[in-house]
Amino acid sequence: MGDCWECGGELVSEIKGSSLVVTCSKCGMSIARSWSEPIREDPTDYKIILTDSDCSPAKLKAIAKITGFNYLTIRKISQNTPQELCQGWATVIRDKKKYLDDADVKYIIEPKWKY
Ligand SMILES: [Zn+2]
Prior knowledge:
- This protein is of the alpha+beta class.
- It contains 4 helices and 6 strands.
- It folds into 2 domains: about 1-35, no CATH class; about 40-110, CATH 3.30.1390.10.
- A hairpin with a 5-residue loop joins strand 2 and strand 3.
- Helix 2 packs across helix 3 and helix 2 (about 55-65) runs antiparallel to helix 4.
- Zinc ion (ZN) binds near residues 6, 9, 26 and 27.
């Protein structure tokens, strides 16, 4: 981000809801403008691929949450990684990957995740 046009201080940008708020870290000058998240406009179809071959019950539960598969299916999947779990737009994948991150599940996203 650039420098503040009031004092030359460093500008920090932050997304709050649907606004991009730019605040000067030095003088506190702040402006907000409406902001469309790039993630919402990303047309890419992402895939979550499970690479974790050592899935605890907590991990299996997280995977169940994002796939809707039953426990047995997931256990089978986890014994034969890598396996594609699901695919979708960036906003969908972002919501799903949260569950995996919370449970510390190892996975990769294809194509490369940039958010
Ligand atoms: Zn400033």
